[in-house]
Amino acid sequence: MMMTDLNDDILEDIFAQARAVAPVPSDDLIARVMAGATVPQAVPQPAPRRSLGQQVLDLLGGWTAVSGLVTATCAGVWIGVAPPASVENYTATYFGDEINVSIFSEDAIFATGDFFDG
Question: Could you tell me if residue 1 is inside a domain?
């Protein structure tokens, strides 16, 4: 059955009665709240000191940033030891003549010849 009366007087009367009653908490609730308020809290402790290594790691941005720095360092060493032909030509042009410095001994096990590309 559909209600066709659009007059909300009955509903307004119910809301008015609900507004007239002030919500009062029970004595049991008040007693529990007051008992919880008197419980002593723990004394705050100072934060533990971090090591110098942890501080440096945080300063650099954490493990992800440090792993990127390590990768870039390895790539730089690799390019420095065995530069590609384009880098070798650029340095020869820039400095005037090519300089080869060997950091490996001739009798090294992994010495397979020329490390330079090109």
Answer: no
The DSSP call for residue 106 is T
pLDDT tens by residue, 13-32: 889 998 888 888 999 999 99
Q: Into how many domains does the chain fold?
A: 1
Instruction: Judge contact between 114 and 85, C-beta under 8 A.
Output: no
Whole-angstrom Cα Rg for the chain: 39
Residue 81 to residue 73: CA distance in whole angstroms? 12
Q: Indicate whether 68 belongs to any domain.
A: yes
Q: Are 91 and 98 in contact (CB under 8 A)?
A: yes
User: What is the per-residue pLDDT across 27-83, written as a single tens digit (0 to 9) for each?
Assistant: 999 999 988 888 788 888 998 999 999 999 999 999 999 999 999 999 999 888 887
Q: Which domain holds residue 80?
A: 52-95
- DSSP 8-state class, residue 109: T
Instruction: Identify the burial level of 116 via C-beta atoms within 10 angstroms of its C-beta, where 0-12 means exposed, 13-18 middle and 19 or more buried.
Output: middle
Identify whether 26 is part of a domain: no
- Domain-embedded: residue 41: no
